[in-house]
Amino acid sequence: MSSVTQILRPRLALFDLDHTLIPMDSDHGWGEFSIAIGWSDRAEFGQRNDEFFAHYQAGTLNVHDYVRFATEAVVQRGADAANAAHQRFMQEVIGPAIKPQAIALVQNHLDAGDTVVITSATNEFVTRPIAQAFGVQELIATDLERDATGWYTGAVKGIPNMREGKVARMDAWLAQRGLSWDEVESTFYSDSMNDVPLLERVNHPVATNPEPRLRALAQERGWRVLDLFTENT
Question: Considering the entire predicted model, what is its pTM?
Fold first, then answer.
């Protein structure tokens, strides 16, 4: 009976985005792109962008400060200009970074009937079109507050989708669908130590293109390790 029950359980395939499905950090990349198109000063913005990225890698990022900094130009330019710039970003930066093996991995889960969710610490403005490029409709990202006009304010809305926040946001996502963790068969792919709380929560953690600390932890715990690509292939 237990094996039959397990077969019938809904299957979730959860994916981190940056350095997991794409060999880059999309938030950092958007910052570099905003410099290239003249929206931000290279010396000042570039230095601060690099500093925030280092804090993220170290697990010490203040996400509220970072999101306010990272979305400042988007907030100021407005919806039309920001969305047009993001289309260029997709064509010039993200498109070339999407590798066939990553598309195939996601598609395999879709073809198997799994519910695929991309869960990213990066904000929704940057990540929504990237998720759509992978054919994924379910995105859990760091949500952005909107003003009375419907445009972003630069503040985070709700729980930032990082570290323990990813578990809380998935808890809420499941509850909205009348599900609990015990009622689903879950797999999560991630490269980052920041995602250990969610890796520990799922049935099948997959350390994907893992940073050295996560690779060591995965080997210690017997988690699957997937080298989907190197940074350049």
Answer: 0.91
